[in-house]
Design a protein that fits this description.
This protein has ten helices and 19 strands. It is an alpha/beta fold. It starts with 13 loop residues before the first strand and ends with a strand. The strands form three sheets. Strands 7-6-5-8-9-12-11 form a seven-stranded mixed sheet, with helices on both faces. Strands 15-16-14-13-17-18-19 form a seven-stranded mixed sheet, covered by helices on one side. It is globular and about 65 Å long. It has three domains: 51 residues, N-terminal domain of TfIIb, CATH 2.20.25; 237 residues, Rossmann fold; 104 residues, 3-Layer(aba) Sandwich (Rossmann fold), CATH 3.40.50.720.
């Protein structure tokens, strides 16, 4: 029986046929929560528009996006941002990363031996594997699609495969598989879980963690921020447990936990879900009860709809406006047309690979370009969500004297 969803005061959630069938139960119908559209880039591999839906059968929340797993794999193979030292949450050694590694290794250590072979899927720069080696577990291997990240791993003498198929072709088998902040990116979840199990020795462990979608509304930093085209699955406790009980590749649950971490965005927390399983035969079958946390995704969409208000832009009187930050958030706002009445002259971004290029007809500059305009007549709109405070500090410390608007906070200030 399909669940009954709460509706907003104005618009009911439509029951629609899905392009992407539910990754957990293969249901072909879902409730549409919101339509997301991004300004396209010239070299885009992934679609720029999709609906966020709840499965009509199991209430799993996911992006109904018209794409394939091979195309997603190709996208991540060419992605360089996770190899950058300044990119947090990608296998680095920043304090926030080290706390994460401590939490994970303390959970795993009772089950590991010095001889255990450990595989980290989507290892990024390899921070978790480095930590495990330091703790006396030398037999570590990575699967990492990004060629840039694999180059970083090679510098640390960490063996790395481009994908699980490559590892399987080399006859690899492991005692423990780590899957940290990866499952939310996977299109074919059932196939992914099956491949992981094929790499396991009898009784092997699986540790996985994901963002807790039931906490999106608690951690809201900007309207629809968590619907970004890369995170295409939005897990709750019920849906993560259901994933690990998919009949074709079921795992036995050993432990489940909610965790909280300090976020990059000031004053915010990252809430996540972690699960520890054994590749032994399944002890508890999957259930199909309604997801008690599905309503929190509806709440988040309602909250985002209210926050998607940019009336503060009408207070800008500058002759030259610059957008600082070229991520999915500003791409959605560009597609929405919120800046069309402003004299936007360009985009500021610290990624040197983008500087000198254009996006949506706007040139991309480094921060130094701001000095070429009379600052008293200019305004910088901070469109980076996570690094807004660091950008403001950079502007003020450089002597910038023009107006500054943090678009997620909605008020114009003069330096």
């Amino acid at each position: 029986m399909s669940p009954t969803l709460r509706t907003t005061d104005a618009t009911p959630h439509s029951l629609v046929p899905l392009v992407r069938h539910c990754p957990l139960c293969q249901c072909a119908m879902g409730y549409s929560l919101v339509r997301i559209e991004f300004e396209p880039a010239v070299d885009d591999l992934l679609p720029n528009d999709f609906s966020v839906v709840l499965c009509a059968h199991c209430q799993f929340c996911f992006d109904d996006i018209s794409v394939s797993q091979p195309l997603i794999d190709q996208y991540y193979q060419g992605l360089e941002k996770y190899a950058h030292a300044q990119t947090g949450g990608s296998g680095g050694s920043e304090p926030i990363d080290l706390k994460r590694w401590e939490r994970i290794t303390s959970l795993l250590s009772p089950y590991l031996k010095p001889s255990s072979r450990i595989l980290d899927l989507g290892s990024g720069k390899g921070g978790l594997l480095r930590t495990l080696r330091q703790l006396g577990y030398p037999h570590v291997v990575a699967v990492e699609p990004s060629a840039s990240c694999r180059a970083v791993l090679a510098q640390q003498d960490i063996p790395a495969y481009a994908d699980m198929e490559d590892a399987l072709a080399h006859g690899e088998q492991f005692d423990c598989i780590l899957c940290c902040q990866v499952l939310e990116h996977i299109y074919d979840l059932a196939g992914f879980m099956q491949k992981m199990k094929s790499l396991c020795r009898p009784g092997a462990l699986l540790y996985a963690d994901v963002p807790d979608a039931s906490c999106y509304v608690l951690n809201s930093v900007a309207a629809y921020y968590y619907f970004d085209r890369e995170h295409i699955n939005h897990f709750t406790q019920a849906s993560l447990q259901r994933l690990c009980a998919i009949p074709q590749s079921a795992w036995s649950l050993l432990s489940f936990a909610h965790y909280e971490e300090t976020a990059i965005a000031e004053g915010k927390k990252n809430h996540g879900l972690s699960i520890l399983c054994s590749a032994a035969p399944l002890l508890s079958p999957a259930t199909h009860a309604d997801d008690p946390d599905a309503g929190s995704l509806i709440d988040y969409c309602q909250h985002s709809s209210q926050a998607d208000d940019y009336s503060a832009l009408s207070d800008i009187r500058a002759e030259a406006v610059f957008l600082w930050g070229l991520g999915y958030y500003v791409r959605r706002l560009l597609r929405k047309g919120v800046f069309k009445h402003l004299p936007v002259k360009g985009i500021i971004d610290r990624d040197k690979g983008d500087q000198g290029r254009t996006f949506a007809g706007l040139p991309i500059y480094s921060q130094t370009f701001l000095s070429t305009y009379p600052q008293s007549q200019s305004c910088v709109i901070i469109t980076s969500v996570l690094y807004a405070d660091a950008i403001r500090h950079s502007l003020l410390s450089s002597g910038y004297t023009g107006a500054i608007l943090d678009i997620t906070k909605g008020s114009v200030h003069h330096a």
